[in-house]
Amino acid sequence: MNLIAPLRSWWNALVHRLDTDSDVEAELQFHIDAYTQQLIDSGLTPADAARQAKIAFGHVGIQKEKYRAAIGLRPLHEIGGDIRYGIRSLYRQPSVSIAAVLSLALGIGATSAMFNVIYSTLLHPFPYADADRIVNPSLIDEKQPLVPTWFALEPAQYESFIKAKSIESVLGFMLAGQPETGGPFPENVSTAYVTSNMNTFLKVPPLLGRGLQLSDASQNVVVLSYKYWQRRFSGDPEILGHILDLNHQSFTIIGVMPSRFTFTETVSNADVYIPWSASRSSALFPWIKLRPGVTPAMANAEFQAYLNKFKQETPRHFPEQFRANVEPITAPYMRRTGRTLAMLFAAVIFLLLIGCANCSVLLLARGEARQHELSIRSAIGASRFRMIRQLLVESLTIAFSGAALGTALSYWLAKLPLKLMPGTFPQEAAIAINWPVLAFSVTLALVTGVLFGLAPALRFSRPDVSTMMQARARTLSTTNSRPLNILIGAQITLTFILLGVAGAAIAGFMHITSMKLGYDPHNVCFIGIPIKRDPNKNQQAYTNYISRMRDTVATVPGVVSVGVMSSGIPPSQPFGGFGLPASFEILGHPPKQPQHALVPLVSPEYFAALKIPLLRGRMWNEDENRRGDFVAVVNETFAQQYFAGHNIIGQQVRTDSLKNDDRPLTITSPNSGDWRQILGVVADSQNNGLERPVAPAIYVPYTTFMWNYTQLFIRTAGDPQSILLPLRNALHSFNPEQRISFTTEIETLEGALSHQPIWMQQHLFSILFSFFSGLALFLSLFGIASTVLFATARRRNELGIRMALGARRPHIVWAVSRTMLSTIACGIVVGLAFNLALQKLIQHWMPANNASFWIFAPVTAVLLAAATLACMLPAARAASIDPAQTLRCD
What we know:
With 890 residues, the chain is α+β, with helices and mostly antiparallel strands. It has four domains: 69 residues, no CATH class; 199 residues, no CATH class; 310 residues, no CATH class; 194 residues, no CATH class. Helix content is 53%, strand content 15%. A hairpin with an 8-residue loop joins strand 3 and strand 4. The longest helix has 39 residues.
């Protein structure tokens, strides 16, 4: 109770400060009036009594200060005065203030922008309620432990699974492609079949209408995605209640989801959402919301027991040996993009440090001009703590001004990296100025204000009063200029590091864009062809269907060649390999250790469409392709790795990935896992990503192992987009029921290449590091020029005397700039040493980077030339002063 009462009194006095001051003044006036009356009663005149009463009680302002000190408000009152003085000081030297605020705005803006990106893409990327408790259950196959795989549950298993103690609720879903049968062409519509608790599980309010509810389980209703609503219905706001025909089944449109909602983590941008009861699937993929307080590690053990039981019931849904893997839905993005964002955040921290150093340089230089003022303050009794506090408050005033401008700038800056992000980033991320970003900016302003203001505050809070009161020295001694030189050297070092990393990123991007792919992606497009399953058709019927479709496409005007491939897109899929990953064995050559290769499923025309040359042997012919004969061709890496110096033609291989194991959604030829004869060798082509070496590959006829989806690779004589309408019409004429996955644009191999994660990552690095290093270079050069300008201004008298005594302009320029040039050289040397030490780390975090020591030669030349120019220009200006005018002024 004794503590609460003073605190309440202090808080009331703070909140009602004006009323408190009035009360104190009224109370003092009451006592003065009473004492005055007492003196009058004792025989004094009213004037003498009033004068003696005022003398006795003292000035009202002094009494107010004593009262504020007594209740603890005096420091706050003084800080308020410091803030007002700091704001006035900004106007007193506007050029210095504007330069300092802009320097900090660039640093804080870039740093806040990157924090915004990190928060939006890694910490809070999803618009779902309780997203931190939603986990993505998967399996880790012990044979392929680096690639988590999803698992499907039968309805009975699903009902059993949702009763687990760790689970609050489960959302089940399945992805399928359905033809829109109500339009002119049967466009393939990506359909997400979800359990009817989708609305209560995710709690994302729809843009129009409503979401799926439990009562919709037996209803033919559909919710549209935002992109599909815009593409198919042109954003019609009156779409609710209309009918959408999918696979000759009518669905009533009941809602449209907002643009941010894409359900990316699970179904890769579904077009529509339909109750799972309308699907023909007998399995669901689960998405789980854990109970409050339950961690993924705690749930993992319980899930393992359930999955072991489910494996015994449906063994085809599970690997032979596996372990449960429960992780937050943000975990995959952390793994794929954490390093990228960490490097970019380190870059903006460097930029912020350069901005802070720039502000320190400006404040130190301005402080030299204020030494006389500070000496007077010290002489009349200001304590060192009081002066440090005032100087820090001035720095914080600049810092918060820069933070306000930087926060506004960060909203625009954050959109730049988000546009350049690889596909590995969550597409539901949204950039916004929210409370976490604002809190980060305020914290950054406090830290930077103290960081760049502490050195000037400590330096100028203890002035040499006797010297400064005698005369205002105009010469910067070596001791005085040392802090400036240290800060400039640090700026140069940090700038050199950023320029070095930017050079490495540009070199890595140039390496990717100019590398030999082994195939020609120009004028090549690819289209996905969903194949309708028919239990009455065998493998030969599907083979004939695809072959006739390929022949039809080959007759389209402008088409040069058409090939079939059903197992990937070169150089690799964003989240998978090129072809089926498989272990293999060679007849007569038992392996000493497991051998692995990729098994692409292609037609013989595939190599002509991509211009991959046959080096020796022959390609299988059309009859062999139709029959799915046991033949294969291999790439040069396979031949050199396993048959170096030997004839590979006629050798036989066998892979485990082509065995007829009755997997769902596959059609295999009989005995597809038997020995295959190698007919030829084709040239290497990138098949394992752009950043990794070519992997051994065994090409086999696509008729050996088919899914319900294949791809046609089409080489055209001109722009692939020019065949869109003729191609669509040709496929419609071939089979009016055939679904197509393209309506307004055809995907090209060049486009797929530019969307490779490593390509986009290097593109992102090269642009952003160049941008950040450019800003760092600008700030460093500005700091150098400012330092030399202030130094020459303080040494104007000295330089005038030197010129009057006969010193020439080159000598003056050298006298002014030699210390700065030495500082620049030292900063470059230290920066070079740091860059060399960081090379292994940079190469580890930038897999495509192959830059060597030579990259630092142009970086050194650019930085040295720019810094020298920034130093020489103000030095040359100092050498042009009129000595007579300078001496006359003194």
